[in-house]
Batch of 2 targets.
Target 1
Amino acid sequence: MKITKLETVCLSRMHEPERQWFTARYRTVKADCAIVVIHTDEGLQGIGEASAYGWPLLIREWVDWLAPELVGKEPSEPGIVLHPNGTNRAYDAAVAGIDTALWDLRGKLADKRVCELLTEKPLNRVRLYASSGCRYDWRNRPEQLIEEALQYIEMGYTAMKFRLGTEWSWNGVTVDRFLSLVRELSQEVSGRMELMLDGNCRLTSSAYGRERLGRRTKWSLARDTHTAASPCRAFSSADAS
């Protein structure tokens, strides 16, 4: 079996007004998707989704650029696996989409689920968490975050990842005010839901900011959340000056 063609299907749909989400300084009004399809000379296809954070149209350009490296090769060949470079988001997303499609194709060839190719004893169930906290506005009812968490509990979720809300500087939000909301959230869901904070690299990485944030949040976040992801952007020596 040989790979004959790679294509990328770019999809997009508008969110209903009530399903739009916002965080920091932007509002997301639509959902985008990039689906990578690997075709073979025997009619079998491998299908994989690339992260839309790489921007679908750019992902498609990179998939087209990378395609000649795979066309004519056996999909089961280990040497055809591409690698991300960590410097270009669209490129890395394209590589990931191709890799996912290759795994899908290999699973079809082996007549197995992909998880069965990765381990002899795959799990039959995987715990899901709600990835949200993207609709609370510090100017208008930030307690919406708590209401949302309680709704997820009713839906059966036992964990939720939430963000930092709208831009703090717009409404004079401080670390203490944010932690107050987190504590209230933690008390409301106590024993029923684990909480995870995604900082989206929005917190300061200055030497003073790290020290201040560390003093005030180290104990609180450890107590009120299960984990914290991407709190600060990458730190450089220039931040300390």
Target 2
Amino acid sequence: MDKQFDKKWQKRVESGALTFGVKLSQEQLDILTFHAQELIRWNKKFNITSIVDPFDVALKHFIDSIAIAPLIVSSSNINPKVIDLGSGGGFPGIPLKVVNPSIELVMVDSSAKKVSFLKYLISQSGILKTNSSKINSSTINSFQTDNSQINSSRIENISISKNYSHSKGVEAIHCRAEEICKMSNYAKQFDFVVSRAFTALDRFTDMAIPFLKRDGCIIAMKGEVKEDELAPLRNRKDIKIDISEYYLPFEQHKRCVIKISVVKL
């Protein structure tokens, strides 16, 4: 194990995930560690991320991605289809897939170098290739908020098969979101569209809606979001928005999750 991503690093990720009710197994921690190591290694040549300090990588990439896992994993949607727009180094998509291998994940990015990195991770990271997993849904409760802060459920008892097959259930695509949403095998196919600070919220909403199944929703992850960015969404009658605030552990960075649902007119 790279000395930058040692047991102390894993403990930070494990502890941070527990803040949001997510209990990681050692196998899951090992896969996330591999992701982090390769991210920094590839970054030396391809500029995938500006965050390079190992503990910042743990907090601002991995723990932040895991924070929305209770939104994706639910007893009413055991095998959710998720598309991650502007996935970059694989966030939040890959940590979500590691937490819940039953997710069918598509990651989209317009950067060929970043997509090459994602395809490399898919080919090397066994947990991303499993199509034999089960979740004890009795341990998974609905996502709730209290005083505008995340109050997550506990996610555990995730059983991951070691009999890995081909990379069914995860895909990385080099394409612009505006183009791929017009393709029949991606349009109206997803339960969740996710992104971390991909673009302005109103633009992202219009970009994401064509991917949604009936009753699907958009999950946008941002830092502090200002009212002038929310105003165009609040004025629309075709969508409903719910905003939750949370704080990343250790350094108390404030973050927002904006959940956007299409209203049937």
